[in-house]
Amino acid sequence: MDPLTLIPFDTLLIDWSDMAEAEKDWLGEYHQEVWDKISPLLGDEESQWLWGKCQVPGFTMSA
């Protein structure tokens, strides 16, 4: 199923101790999709903001 919107979750509001590894992986993959699809449409400053918002602890994103 494709998401209706592509907006990163606010990771400061997440209690990571309550999340299973599979949930963390899903969030990392979703944020990678947000980055891949939205960043080409942004300028440098907005792109830097989005990169920071898409980071998930324990998940390595590719630029």
What is the strand and helix layout of this fold?
Elements: H1 21-38, H2 44-53
What does this structure look like?
By secondary structure, the chain is mainly α. The chain has a domain at 30-56. It is 44% helix and 0% strand. It has two helices and no strands. The protein has helices spanning 21-38, 44-53. It is globular, with a radius of gyration of 12 Å. The chain starts with 20 loop residues before the first helix and ends in a 10-residue tail after the last helix. The mean pLDDT is 94.
Outline the biggest β-sheet.
Answer: none
Low-confidence stretches: none
Cα-based radius of gyration, to the nearest Å: 12 Å
Distance N to C terminus = 24 Å
Shape label: globular
Order of helices and strands: HH
Count the helices. How many?
Answer: 2
Total beta-strand segments: 0
Supply the helix-strand structural class.
mainly alpha
Nearest-integer average pLDDT:
94
The fraction of residues assigned to DSSP E strands is under 5%
Helix content: 40-55%
Task: Describe what is shown at a glance.
By secondary structure, this protein is mainly alpha-helical. About 45% of the residues lie in helices and about 0% in strands. It has a domain at about 30-55.
Question: Keywords for this structure?
Answer:
single chain; 63 residues; mainly alpha; 2 helices; 0% strand
